[in-house]
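User: tokens in, sequence out, please.
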């Protein structure tokens, strides 16, 4: 069954399906919007008790999907000593960057330089450092936050495929996170340079950042933008959001952090919880 699912993704019109999904997700027509929201919430067991607004108060499905939480719903760990989880989700893989490569699944890995859209300079900086891949399931809170304090240094939009990013696809598609459409966000902070890579997926209707708004999806060229005096964020601040779910890949330079020993593939995370200790 899993092989059929993967083969179907190879032949499916990924971008066309995602654009179509985006139109439905942005619809303000009650006959389209309301059934989508209510059926989705029921099917995936979305916890609306922690949401800032109840089900009937969203203008579009995307408005619901990127919903804010009530104040205090995600308490933050001590960012002076720890790195914070950037999102609700589950650890897909976590570990050390070695030989310029990141583990994707058992028997599969991919190039850090390719993940960063060909940015070999920063790929070299991350050699020997730490990485974590966090998968956001459909029921999760879908805003992405800062794992540590930092100033925005550069963004790189990388066009690509739109395979699903669940566990089955990660185990069956080579270089999944380095071939899907993504937005690389590089920051400089007290723990050096770090990356938060927002990876698109099948049916994902878009990615947005708090500094630039919605990223135009499905382009054909790698687009880099440097920020000489970029906005600065504190640990736990919102940095972006997914319109329908996906994955975040974190990269840190060597000697800066150490992952908590209890974390491993499958560990469930809540935004703001401690996931690593700062060593610098």
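Assistant: Sequence out:
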């Amino acid at each position: 069954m899993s092989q059929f699912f993967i083969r179907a993704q190879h032949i499916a019109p990924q971008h066309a399906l995602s654009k179509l999904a985006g139109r439905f997700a942005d619809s303000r027509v009650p006959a389209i919007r309301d059934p989508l929201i209510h059926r989705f919430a029921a099917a995936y067991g979305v916890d609306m008790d922690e949401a800032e607004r109840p089900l009937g108060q969203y203008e579009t499905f995307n408005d619901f999907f990127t919903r804010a939480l009530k104040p205090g719903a995600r308490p933050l760990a001590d960012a002076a000593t720890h790195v914070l989880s950037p999102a609700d989700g589950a650890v897909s893989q976590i570990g050390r960057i070695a030989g310029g490569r990141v583990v994707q699944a058992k028997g599969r890995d991919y190039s850090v330089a390719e993940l960063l859209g060909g940015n070999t300079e920063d790929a070299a900086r991350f050699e020997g450092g730490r990485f974590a891949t966090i998968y956001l399931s459909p029921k999760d809170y879908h805003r992405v936050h800062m794992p540590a304090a930092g100033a925005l240094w550069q963004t790189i939009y990388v066009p690509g495929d739109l395979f699903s990013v669940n566990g089955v696809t990660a185990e069956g598609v080579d270089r999944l996170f380095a071939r899907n459409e993504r937005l690389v966000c590089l920051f400089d902070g007290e723990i050096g340079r770090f990356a938060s890579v927002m990876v698109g997926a099948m049916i994902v209707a878009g990615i947005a950042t708090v500094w630039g708004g919605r990223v135009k999806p499905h382009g054909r060229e790698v687009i880099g933008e440097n920020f000489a005096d970029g906005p600065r964020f504190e640990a736990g601040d919102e940095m972006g959001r997914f319109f329908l779910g996906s994955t975040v890949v974190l990269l840190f330079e060597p000697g800066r952090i150490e992952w908590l020993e209890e974390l491993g593939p499958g560990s469930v995370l809540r935004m703001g919880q401690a996931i690593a200790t700062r060593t610098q």
